[in-house]
């Protein structure tokens, strides 16, 4: 099979090389970007008088035909064509004849692939940000219902202080909002056209890069051609953005797994989004959050993989770079399905406030409140207050009760400066609502936080 680049070769490529060298079986995903890029390029060549209007028209019609064939499944993707750029150009030339051979004037596959892949990545930054917003909306709905549902706030996975479930979910809303901003800023930073950089050094043809860039929706034109054809920062960025987002998803997933255990019993995932065991008939497994946690690993792999591919490359384009696509495609698909399924799992899960409340009754969650009381009401230095509270905790343990249930007489035995008003501080709900500082868990503060996220989502 004759290659487009075979002019200087006397023997044809081996089948084994074809297999090894080809990207067409996966880069065909970029066919729309490739055809649009070719159209923009041809339009520019026509404006500059490098193509005649008639030649442009032929190319335009021919590309429309190619697109139709691809979308109807008629198009034959051949390993021997190497990549989608050559596959499409070859078919164009079969359809319109020699004019098709003029399309590649003032262009190289190096800037062509940079255009196609960059535009795919840019679009995916925005699409993933959109899916994140939908997920946030679902979380807001659940959080809204639980701004006074108490559960133990933890550090070191040990009971720490009482918080409300809306506040807990608000932490994830904060993470996902930052993720959205990261995707959006990558979009803005990288919306720059590589088209017209040609192989590495620009072109002697009188082209108009601004014109083709505008056609493709780019904000501007890249500054240095040598950089542009070898730069894959935009791909690394989306991999990092997805990795960070998946890390957040994985943390939430870990909590969903814990919460749906008998030990916690804070939520029950719906039957629709749970699975059974092949041997243990009683089981209902949280496969969705487990898989989300697991898939985070493959996304990290893609990020580290591409960083490694790039690290030793001399300027400018090297074929190593062809390894940039599969990891990105896989990570993007993983991100998309993960966001969708997590949204559904959250939407359909049952929250169990009674169990959350019950869990607050162990672990002396209002201990810090007693210490704060001693500081504020009794003017005791915090270190000493901490010590006195420790005694009260020990007493409660001895009595087999939670500190929130201790009687005044025991507290007075420990320190006679304590008076009756202490009991209010020990009530778990009061403890939660006492945390009125900015960003704190008090129901009122939580509602303000949720309003902030709602407003953010509405503005979007
Ligand atoms: N299939 C190649 C890639 O994905 C396209 C660019 C090839 N350029 C070249 N000079 N061989 O990177």
UniProtKB/TrEMBL annotation:
Its EC number is 4.3.2.1. The keyword Magnesium does not apply. One of its GO terms (cellular component) is cytosol. One of its GO terms (biological process) is L-arginine biosynthetic process via ornithine. It is an enzyme of class 4 (lyase). Pathway: Amino-acid biosynthesis; L-arginine biosynthesis; L-arginine from L-ornithine and carbamoyl phosphate: step 3/3. Residues 7-301 form the Fumarate lyase N-terminal domain. It holds the Pfam family Lyase_1. The keyword Cytoplasm applies. It is found in: Cytoplasm. Keywords: Amino-acid biosynthesis, Arginine biosynthesis, Cytoplasm, Lyase. GO terms for molecular function: argininosuccinate lyase activity. Gene3D superfamilies: Fumarase/aspartase (C-terminal domain), Fumarase/aspartase (Central domain), Fumarase/aspartase (N-terminal domain). It catalyses: 2-(N(omega)-L-arginino)succinate = fumarate + L-arginine. InterPro entries: Arg_succ_lyase_C (IPR029419), Argininosuccinate_lyase (IPR009049), Fumarase/histidase_N (IPR024083), Fumarate_lyase_CS (IPR020557), Fumarate_lyase_fam (IPR000362), Fumarate_lyase_N (IPR022761), L-Aspartase-like (IPR008948). Residues 365-433 form the Argininosuccinate lyase C-terminal domain. SUPFAM superfamilies: L-aspartase-like. Belongs to the lyase 1 family. Argininosuccinate lyase subfamily. This is Argininosuccinate lyase. The gene is argH.
């Amino acid at each position: 099979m004759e290659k487009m680049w075979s002019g200087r070769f006397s023997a044809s490529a081996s089948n084994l090389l074809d297999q090894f060298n080809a990207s067409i079986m996966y880069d065909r995903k970029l066919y729309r970007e490739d055809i649009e890029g070719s159209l923009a390029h041809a339009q520019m060549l026509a404006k500059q008088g490098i193509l005649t209007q008639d030649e442009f028209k032929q190319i335009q019609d021919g590309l429309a035909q190619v697109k139709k064939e691809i979308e109807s499944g008629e198009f034959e993707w051949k390993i021997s064509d190497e990549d989608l750029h050559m596959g499409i150009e070859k078919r164009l030339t079969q359809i319109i004849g020699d004019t098709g051979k003029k399309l590649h004037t003032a262009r190289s596959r190096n800037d062509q692939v940079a255009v196609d892949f960059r535009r795919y990545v840019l679009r995916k930054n925005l699409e993933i940000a959109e899916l994140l917003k939908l997920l946030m909306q679902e979380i807001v709905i659940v959080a809204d219902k639980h701004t006074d549902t108490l559960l133990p706030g933890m550090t070191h996975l040990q009971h720490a202080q009482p918080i409300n479930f809306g506040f807990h979910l608000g932490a994830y809303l904060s993470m996902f909002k930052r993720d959205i901003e990261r995707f959006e800023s990558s979009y803005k930073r990288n919306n720059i056209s590589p088209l017209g950089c040609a192989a590495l050094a620009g072109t002697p043809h009188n082209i108009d890069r601004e014109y083709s860039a505008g056609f493709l929706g780019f904000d501007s034109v890249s500054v240095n051609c040598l950089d542009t054809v070898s730069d894959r920062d935009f791909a690394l960025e989306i991999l990092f953005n997805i990795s960070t987002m998946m890390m957040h998803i994985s943390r939430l997933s870990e909590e969903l797994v814990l919460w749906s255990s008998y030990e916690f019993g804070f939520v029950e995932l719906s039957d629709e989004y749970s699975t059974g065991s092949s041997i243990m008939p009683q089981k209902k497994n949280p496969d969705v959050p487990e898989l989300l946690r697991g898939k985070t690993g493959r996304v990290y792999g893609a990020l580290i993989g591409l960083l490694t591919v790039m690290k030793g490359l001399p300027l400018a384009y090297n074929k190593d770079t062809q390894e940039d696509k599969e990891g990105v495609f896989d990570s993007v698909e993983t991100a998309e399905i993960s966001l969708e399924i997590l949204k559904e799992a959250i939407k359909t899960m049952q929250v169990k406030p009674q169990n959350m409340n019950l869990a607050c009754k162990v672990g002396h969650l209002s201990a810090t409140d007693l210490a704060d009381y001693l500081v504020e009401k009794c003017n005791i230095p915090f270190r000493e207050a901490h010590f006195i509270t420790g005694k009260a905790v020990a007493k409660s343990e001895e009595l087999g009760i939670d500190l929130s249930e201790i009687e005044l007489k025991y507290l007075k035995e420990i320190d006679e400066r304590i008076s009756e008003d202490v009991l209010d501080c020990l009530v778990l709900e009061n403890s939660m609502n006492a945390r009125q500082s900015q960003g704190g868990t008090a129901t009122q503060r939580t509602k303000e936080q949720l309003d902030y996220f709602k407003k953010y989502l509405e503005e979007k």
